[in-house]
């Protein structure tokens, strides 16, 4: 048989995005605990001014601490995953240079709103994380993250009964918003849901290795707002795609906690 020249020679890069507090770091810890025995993993975390998420993962003992690298973006969380991905690309390349060959590099976005998506120049596949504590209606709000990520994860399903959320309905509406694209209802306390998530990762990695998986651009960032440190004033905000977004300095995640 002829050699498959489309198969990649580097690790698959998996992006994990979603609003603040939806459990992205805990999800990554679960993936590392479950998959580290069979896959060679690396993790990159993004925070604006700290390495908080990296320190959480290192303290959890889910992976060799040297395989967990923090990136301090110093700007809006989505900037480093979509507008200028240089810092994350360099971190991924350094991980592979130091520990390669790797099978999977997981890149966690800083917490952002429903518009956050990764550039296909940075990741090969991406999942978007919501949680039931954010409200069952969040999934109906739409946005590029919900609608066009490779996988939507509805996290912390074990909390549904305590916050008055119908988890089955939320998952169903997620599938409707995504026109049938995959949705996983996840709890780190539910082994069956973890198997579904890790099964999706394995299947995606298999397609990536055989050259059958193509990164999909979820589209440009939708209009959004961010808060300045002083919380005052406003200024136009231009992204690399050329679109202007005015800042009203409402907290970026106000719609999530309302």
From TrEMBL:
Protein's cellular compartments: Cytoplasm
Keyword terms: Chaperone, Cytoplasm, GTP-binding, Nickel insertion, Nucleotide-binding
SUPFAM superfamilies attached to this UniProt entry: P-loop containing nucleoside triphosphate hydrolases
Gene Ontology cellular component list: cytoplasm
One Pfam family recorded for the sequence: cobW
Listed GO MF terms: GTP binding; GTPase activity; nickel cation binding
Annotated region (Disordered), positions in chain: 211-258
Family: Belongs to the SIMIBI class G3E GTPase family. UreG subfamily.
Function according to Swiss-Prot or TrEMBL: Facilitates the functional incorporation of the urease nickel metallocenter. This process requires GTP hydrolysis, probably effectuated by UreG.
Subunit structure: Homodimer. UreD, UreF and UreG form a complex that acts as a GTP-hydrolysis-dependent molecular chaperone, activating the urease apoprotein by helping to assemble the nickel containing metallocenter of UreC. The UreE protein probably delivers the nickel.
Name used for this protein in its record: Urease accessory protein UreG
Organism, as annotated: Streptomyces melanosporofaciens
């Amino acid at each position: 048989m002829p050699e498959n020249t489309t198969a990649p020679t580097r690790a698959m890069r998996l992006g994990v995005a979603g609003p603040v507090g939806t459990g992205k770091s805990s999800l990554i810890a679960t993936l590392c605990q479950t998959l580290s025995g069979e896959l060679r993993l690396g993790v990159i975390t993004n925070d604006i001014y700290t390495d908080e998420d990296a320190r959480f993962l290192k303290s959890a003992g889910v992976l060799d601490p040297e395989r967990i690298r923090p990136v301090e973006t110093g700007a809006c969380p989505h900037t480093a995953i979509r507008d200028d991905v240089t810092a994350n690309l360099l971190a991924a390349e350094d991980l592979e240079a130091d520990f390669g060959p790797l099978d999977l590099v997981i890149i966690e976005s800083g917490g952002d709103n429903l518009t956050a998506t990764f550039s296909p120049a940075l990741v090969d596949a991406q999942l978007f994380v919501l949680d039931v504590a954010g409200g069952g209606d969040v999934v109906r709000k739409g946005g590029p993250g919900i609608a066009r990520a490779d996988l939507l994860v509805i996290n912390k399903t074990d909390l549904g009964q305590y916050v008055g959320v119908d988890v089955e309905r939320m998952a169903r509406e997620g599938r409707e918003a995504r026109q049938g694209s995959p949705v996983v209802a996840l709890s780190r306390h539910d082994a069956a849901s973890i198997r579904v998530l890790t099964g999706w990762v394995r299947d995606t990695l298999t397609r990536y290795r055989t050259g059958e998986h193509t990164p999909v651009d979820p589209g440009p960032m939708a209009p959004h707002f961010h808060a300045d440190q002083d919380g005052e004033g406003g200024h136009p905000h231009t992204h690399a795609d050329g679109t202007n977004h005015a800042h009203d300095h409402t907290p970026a995640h106000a719609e999530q906690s309302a």
